[in-house]
Amino acid sequence: RLRTELHLSNGSKLVCIPGDSSTARGYSPNLIVLDEASRIDEGMLAAVTPMLAETDGDLLILSTPAGRRGFFYAVWIDEEQQWERISARRVDYPHRVKPGFLEAEMATLGPALYSQEHENAFIADGDQLIADDAIEALVQYPPGMQLLTALEGL
Q1: Predicted confidence (pLDDT) per residue in 60-75, tens digit
Q2: 71-109 burial by CB neighbour count: b if 16+ within 10 A, else e?
């Protein structure tokens, strides 16, 4: 298995493994951190969450949004799921970037990608012909029914 381990003086151990569900199995951690979780497939989530059962450990998922799909998006928008959500937008911490950087990013990326990368916005997929908000403005759904985009769940 490919992995990197860091042993700390307090007896703790950090194990870094590739984002592949076949290499992520077989540990009993107290904490699992999934970085850039919006780009990790559900197979990885299914591989790592059972490992927390033995230790009653915690799962920390961090990410920049990547469209309106996948498990990161689903847990972020579903307020009934018991997650603590913390949003740290780059514009809230201007002292962490050099002057002019955000303006240059807006010019380079355009408003949609800028908003995803720096404001934590879940933007519609580029393959979607009509934006979700435009459809939702035209249609009223019966109670309990939701709009699903064509790429959700893939």
Answers
A1: 999 999 988 888 999 8
A2: bbbebbeeeeeeeeeeeeebeeeeeeeeeeebeebeeee
